[in-house]
Specification:
With about 140 residues, the chain is an alpha+beta fold. Helices cover about 15% and strands about 30% of the residues.
């Protein structure tokens, strides 16, 4: 029998990304730190033909297939609106969240740090118009 110690450090951070109402893919501060996101890094995406699963690939050098990672006030995002529109994601009425699961076995094939984008099943809350005063 082989016993392997599981470190709490490895499981302390739940990596997340969110398609915001603007179409940008944004990252939590903890996720940005673990992914070592910074201006000058790039993100590529891959899609599994069989089940349409998405993969995020973080790379150090840009190319024609990569989106630049952008930063605004310490917040990191990727300008993905056109891509998510083309893929048919309906994010306008609420954010779509993903858990990012490391897939190091795909790093060589996809030439970067690969993360499976597991979509979270969430219900979008209906927007309330409580602050509208009717005459």
């Amino acid at each position: 029998m082989a016993i392997k110690l599981l470190s709490a450090k490895k499981f302390a951070t739940n990596l997340k990304a969110t398609i915001q109402a603007s179409g940008r893919l944004g990252f939590t501060a903890d996720t940005a730190k673990v992914l070592d996101l910074q201006s000058g890094k790039f993100a590529k995406f891959a899609q599994d033909d069989e089940n349409n699963s998405l993969y995020l690939i973080i790379i150090d050098e840009g190319n024609e297939d990569a989106f630049s990672v952008r930063e605004s006030s310490g917040y990191y995002y990727v300008p993905t609106k056109v891509m998510f529109d083309t893929l048919g994601f309906k994010y306008e009425n609420g954010n779509i969240m993903f858990d990012l699961i490391r897939q190091s076995s795909l790093d060589d094939d996809l030439q970067g740090q690969v993360y499976f984008m597991k979509q979270r099943p969430t219900k979008n809350k209906e927007k309330k118009n409580d602050d509208i005063i009717e005459p």
